[in-house]
Specification:
Elements (H helix, E strand, L loop, with lengths): L2 E2 L2 E2 L5 E4 L4 E5 L11 E4 L4 E2 L2 E2 L4 E3 L1 H4 L12 E4 L7 E3 L8 E2 L3 E6 L5 H7 L3 H9 L11 H4 L3 E4 L2 H40 L18
Parallel strand pairs: 5-11
Antiparallel strand pairs: 1-2, 3-13, 4-12, 5-8, 6-7, 9-10, 9-12
Helix pairs in contact: 2-5
Length: 214
């Protein structure tokens, strides 16, 4: 079995440079956040394989000049400066968003499944490749040309889709549990304020007619 960046390749798998299976484009310089209706993806919005947080917004007029920098469902955005190695998959809700400076957009071709590729970029060996291929010290960065040389292990398309679905289902469960944790923490904080201000008693504590706890 031939070796690849992520280990030995099973039969029918192959390894190719990223540029052979994706179109790569560096992001555009965009106007300052104006609260406009067109969302702009910046590095801070890219985490854990998905887009998060509140993105900046620009006007339709400004976005009209940036047609080449619109996202489509299935695109993958990678952080180019700062947190190199972070990446996220764009879904239907992100269609038409602009990817700004500090981002490199990957547009997968027909040989690679977007969901599979998004998970592939999280592989420890791939993340190590990012660390070894950044330039700069104060602010690590990676160029479009360098990112294009990233070796990608490609199984047959049917296998890619199966891997993508399986890992995607696990990521959805992780996201649900994270939301539960955030909601529970918010409830705790709200209750903490009420309890420590004397607005309410501890849960389960009942007061009788004489004012004593039952």
């Amino acid at each position: 079995m031939p070796r690849s960046l992520t280990g030995r390749l099973p039969e029918m798998w192959r390894e190719v440079p990223l540029v052979d299976v994706c179109e790569l484009r560096a992001g555009a310089s965009t106007p300052a956040d104006s609260g406009g209706p067109v969302r702009v993806v910046k590095p801070r919005n890219v985490t854990d394989g998905r887009l998060t947080g509140t993105p900046d917004g620009i006007t339709e007029e400004s976005a009209g000049k940036l047609g080449r920098y619109r996202l489509a469902s299935g695109d993958i955005v990678c952080v180019r400066t700062g947190g190199v190695g972070r990446h996220a998959l764009a879904t239907a809700e992100h269609t038409g968003w602009i990817f700004g400076t500090g981002i490199i957009r990957l547009r997968p071709g027909e040989d690679v499944d977007p969901l599979y590729l998004n998970h592939y970029l999280s592989h420890p060996s791939v993340q190590d490749w990012f660390r070894r291929n950044v330039a700069g010290t104060a602010v690590p960065s990676i160029s479009t040309g360098a990112l294009g040389t990233l070796p990608v292990a490609l199984p047959p398309m049917r296998t890619q889709k199966s891997i993508g679905r399986a890992l995607g289902a696990l990521n959805e469960k992780i996201a649900i549990h994270e939301q539960i944790c955030r909601t529970t923490a918010e409830l705790r904080d709200a209750l903490l304020s009420r309890l420590l201000s004397g607005e309410s008693g501890p849960p389960g504590e009942h007061t009788g007619d004489d004012g004593a706890c039952a």
